[in-house]
Amino acid sequence: MVVDFDPDDPPLEPPDGTEPVVWRMAQAIRAAHQPDSTACCVTCRVNVPWPCPPSRLAARGFLLAIRLRRTSRR
Ligand SMILES: [Zn+2]
What we know:
Elements: H1 20-32, H2 53-72
The structure holds zinc ion (ZN).
């Protein structure tokens, strides 16, 4: 099963086929780490260019949520 989602705008609710807890954690991190008007992260210190390390971690979290559920169904 393939879960399609827009990495720039992932759905708030975990899609079918994903691990919901990991998905929601990734969403929470993503929501807190957004670019400001100067292309720096609003949560990390000034001069940390976006995407900051936590926002990149969130992006990987969505992929992990997909992989975990697939793995657990085997
Ligand atoms: Zn950040």
